[in-house]
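wait is this the right file?? whatever heres the structure
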């Protein structure tokens, strides 16, 4: 029986080596399929990825323990390779799953495009095996950063969708869970706390002195860099300036991108924001003229409307103070940019 199993393993190794060069294209195809399913409205896919994340974490754990097995066993290299390949594909599909979501929530020519560029770069890296091994698998640090970033981006999207968590809280919860789940897989606490007489006590001390500072540092990083993160799953469906609002239809009347200041007394900024069911969020219309802050108006939205939650704010113009380039930024309570409305008032 053992000889039969080993013969099948030898065949598998032969087939793998023969067709290995085509695996990156298979991985890319699976990722593209993920995007197609999402764009066609297969809502179940978000639940599937919760399961896939669980599998991904499990494979990392298995890989960590598998490396302690005897390398002389012929099954060992196959097992390690299979786990790494499955894990790579899971996380690549996850990145490609998140790519269109973060794209829709980002604002072009704003700083939150940086996060989108990072996701795009990771999608390219994970597509090609040699690049993935060179960049990601080169050390435990790069692996930890890669897996933590992916899990953070995924949880930051899922928590508002599945649990109705406010966007600002989702950021901090997501980074905390990512570090709590993944750091034990890459940090050997027993080696760090070598002075402890009891292994369990040393492990607990390692948890306290390593994970807690990591979470606090990540909180500080998120607080400083949250403006670079698109406010998923919120997205601006439409936004425009107008001279009035139809209160019955809740639509702008006489929308414009440029208008004369003659006879202009009031400007309205109309926005339609998409948010999934169960989300209640306070957004802000931040008015600026020629990059100078003018006013900040709160807007409470609730999710579940396919056409988006429609809301507006207004600005009463002072005499001879209307001309200029106006920008209305739609921001979350944490300062993340949801979208931007631009218009000009001329002579």
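ok assuming it is, sequence goes like this
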């Amino acid at each position: 029986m053992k000889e039969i199993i080993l013969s099948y393993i030898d065949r598998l190794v032969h087939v793998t080596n023969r067709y290995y060069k085509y695996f990156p294209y298979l991985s890319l195809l699976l990722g593209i399929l993920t995007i197609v399913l999402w764009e066609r409205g297969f809502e179940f896919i978000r639940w599937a990825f919760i399961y896939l994340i669980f599998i991904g974490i499990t494979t990392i754990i298995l890989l960590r323990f598998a490396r302690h097995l005897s390398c002389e066993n012929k099954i060992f290299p196959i097992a390690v390779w299979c786990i790494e390949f499955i894990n790579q594909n899971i996380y690549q599909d996850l990145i490609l799953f998140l790519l269109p979501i973060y794209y829709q929530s980002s604002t072009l020519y704003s700083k939150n495009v940086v996060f989108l560029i990072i996701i795009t770069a990771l999608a390219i890296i994970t597509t090609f095996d040699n690049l993935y091994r060179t960049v990601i698998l080169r050390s435990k640090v790069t692996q930890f950063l890669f897996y933590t970033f992916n899990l953070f981006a995924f949880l930051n999207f899922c928590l508002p969708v599945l649990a109705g968590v406010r966007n600002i809280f989702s950021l901090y919860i997501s980074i905390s869970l990512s570090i709590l789940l993944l750091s034990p897989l890459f940090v050997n606490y027993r080696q760090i706390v070598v002075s402890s007489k009891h292994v369990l006590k040393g492990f607990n001390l390692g948890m306290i002195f390593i994970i807690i500072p990591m979470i606090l540092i990540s909180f500080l990083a998120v607080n400083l860099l949250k403006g670079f993160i698109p406010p998923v799953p919120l997205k601006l469906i439409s936004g425009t300036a107008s001279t009035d609002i139809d209160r019955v239809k809740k639509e702008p009347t006489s929308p414009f991108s440029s208008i004369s200041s003659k006879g202009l007394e009031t400007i309205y900024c109309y926005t339609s924001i998409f948010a999934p069911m169960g989300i209640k969020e306070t957004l802000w219309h931040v008015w600026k003229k020629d990059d100078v802050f003018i006013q900040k108006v709160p807007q409470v939205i609730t999710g579940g409307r396919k056409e988006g939650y429609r809301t507006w704010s207004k600005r009463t113009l002072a005499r001879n103070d209307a001309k200029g380039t106006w920008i209305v930024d739609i921001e979350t309570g944490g300062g993340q940019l949801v979208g931007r409305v631009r218009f000009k008032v001329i002579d």
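Confidence is low (pLDDT under 50) at residues 195-200. so i think its the right one actually
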